[in-house]
TrEMBL record:
Residues 17-71 form the HTH cro/C1-type domain. PANTHER family: HTH-TYPE TRANSCRIPTIONAL REGULATOR (PTHR46797), METHYLPHOSPHONATE SYNTHASE (PTHR46797:SF1). The keyword rRNA processing does not apply. One of its GO terms (cellular component) is cytosol. Keywords: DNA-binding. This is Transcriptional regulator, XRE family with cupin sensor. SMART domains: HTH_XRE. InterPro entries: Cro/C1-type_HTH (IPR001387), Cupin_2 (IPR013096), Lambda_DNA-bd_dom_sf (IPR010982), RmlC-like_jellyroll (IPR014710), RmlC_Cupin_sf (IPR011051), TransReg_Diox_bact_type (IPR050807). GO terms for molecular function: DNA binding; DNA-binding transcription factor activity. It comes from Saccharopolyspora kobensis.
Length: 188
């Protein structure tokens, strides 16, 4: 059986995590404690034997004092980047329904982590929390954004929501129209 893009993704991101962990003088056990993950999982991830969801990558990034975009970034010295349609890093996720794609849109260690979702969950999943701030922009379709505490907002094309990442949040697709959402996450 041949290698897939997902295999290559796992190898490169896992290697980047190992490089950052070692550079910070952390053991697998210490990183696991900081991220709330087992050192066995981290060992497999660093060696490209398993993949991680965006939520797990966020936990690893915070534990390493960096961002998910820094973990996903391809190495380049260029300050200006152009990402064409169909390019970017496809982020494998086990927590999204079939037919949903998640694509990182940054090629360098930027202070903003742009992620594009095509499709999405029709039912609410677990709330997500992270450091920094988040901006959610609906390109097409309709979604419902839910915040812990009972506030819900229905969003359609060109609608934008901004909120602290520490506010528990989640979203789901409304209706049958194809959904595209752009999420921008900062680490401050």
């Amino acid at each position: 059986m041949g290698r897939t893009a997902s295999d290559d993704w796992g190898d490169s991101v896992g290697a980047r995590v190992r490089e950052l962990r070692r550079g910070r003088g952390l053991t697998l056990k210490k990183l696991g404690e900081r991220a709330g993950l087992s050192h066995a999982f981290l060992s497999q991830f660093e060696r490209g034997l398993t993949t991680a969801s965006v939520n797990t990558l966020q936990r690893i990034a915070v534990a390493l004092g960096t961002t998910v975009s820094a973990l996903l970034a391809t190495r380049t010295e260029q300050e200006i980047g152009v990402l064409r349609a169909g390019e970017g890093v496809a982020v494998p996720r086990a927590d999204v329904p079939d037919g949903t794609t998640v694509r990182s849109l940054s090629r360098a260690d930027w202070p903003v982590q742009p992620i594009e979702y095509t499709g999405g969950p029709v039912e609410f999943g677990d709330y997500f929390e992270h450091v920094g701030h988040e901006m959610l922009y609906v390109v097409s379709g309709r979604i419902e954004l839910d915040f812990a505490g009972g506030r819900r907002e229905e969003l359609g094309p060109a609608d934008v929501a901004t909120y602290p990442g520490s506010t528990p949040h989640r979203w789901r697709v409304l209706g049958d129209e194809q959904v595209r959402v752009l999420v921008m996450v900062t680490d401050r």
